[in-house]
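Can't paste images in this forum, so I'm doing it all in text. The chain is below; anyone willing to post the predicted structure tokens underneath?
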Amino acid sequence: MHTRWHYNSWRPVTAINRTDIWLLSGHNVPDFSWESLLQPTPIEQEYTSGHSTVGAAAGAVLKTYNKGDAINITVSSVVGQSPSYVSTRQYNNITEAAVEIGTSRVYGGVCSPFSVLL
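Text version of the structure:
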């Protein structure tokens, strides 16, 4: 947790909604209508992503317990606010699942790619 306060990195919503010139090119590119797909956006700094850190640690533990990376598992879960939308994912190895845990935060718009541990 101390790393977050040391680097004090913005979440994407903060950067995208910022109104002053902040790009090295000098361009001002705010988009006030942009929102992350995952709501609400966490209030603490984004680096490092706790979600991906815990996912990577769990993956390492599972690989040790499983005595290898190979698995064959199908997981279904409710996605978002609508209980009618169920996502089903198939995984052939633990590493693939752990990487997807981290990248889900990027795709959801709450973390930048440099914040997730892959």
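The radius of gyration is 17 Å. The first strand starts at residue 70 and ends at 78.
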